[in-house]
Amino acid sequence: MIRPIVKDVFFLGQKSEPATKEDGKIAQDLRDTLGANREECVGMAANMIGFRKRIIIVDFGIGSVVMNNPVITKKSGPYEAEEGCLSLEGERKTTRYQEIEVEYQDSKFHKKKMNLKGYTAQIVQHELDHLEGIII
Asked: Is 89 one of the annotated active-site residues of the chain?
C-alpha cells in the first residue's frame, strides 16, 4: 500500500524499535511508497510512512533492497554533504562517510553484510539517521 509521507518532526525525532518477522507488511508498504515517489526519492525509512520500526529500503538503481535492523559496523572517509528529504523542507548539511559496512537482516531475517561506497553509502547513512530519530 502506498502510504503518505510523514512530516511531523516530533514523530520523526523518535528512535525506532527493532523490526520483527511480523513487520513484513511494513517492508511491502515501503516498496510501494518508494515506487510511487521514485522520481524524488532513492531511499526511505519506516518512520517516514508512520511506523517506528528499524526498517529501511534503498534503491540501488538495479533494484531496491529492504534492510531490517541495519547497523553500520565500519565507516571511513568522512566528508560534508548537503541532503534533502521527502519528510523535511529544504536541504541540510551533515557529515557522511565515503565507505561503510552495514549489517542487516533480509526479508527472511537472515543476517547479511554489505560494503557500500559513494552515493549508495550516503543513502543508507541518511536512512539510518531516520531510525535513530536524527533530523538533519
From this structure: no
